[in-house]
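WARN retry 2 of 3 for item q-0093 after timeout on previous attempt; input resubmitted unchanged.
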Amino acid sequence: MRIYCALTRSELELLSNQGGIEIDALSSLTIYAQTLQWIDAQDESDPDVLDDEILHQAAGEQPGYLVVAEIPAGQATVVSPVEGLVQLSAPIRLKDVAAYFVVDQDGELSWFGPSELPVLLDSGK
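OK item q-0093 returned
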């Protein structure tokens, strides 16, 4: 299951320094996934458009960072199917990350690959 989660710089550094974000830290984060009910509630069915929609939904209104990760479906419990909200029962590990995004003041997203976390952290100093 692909999850989408907005992070602060300190949470992103935690992911980098500890190799993951543990369960206790995850409880304060809002995590999204494309649930069937979320997909049904959208006006589009194009997978690329749906990815863009959930990225912007997860990014929210504030500048910051967004992590996209692939986790086993059994590690996520759907909390609100229509909103696509999920809760994780296992940490997000660096090895699970599919992409990072920087969210600027205008809500624009800049993509970074999974191996580019050091570059991302250096660019935000």
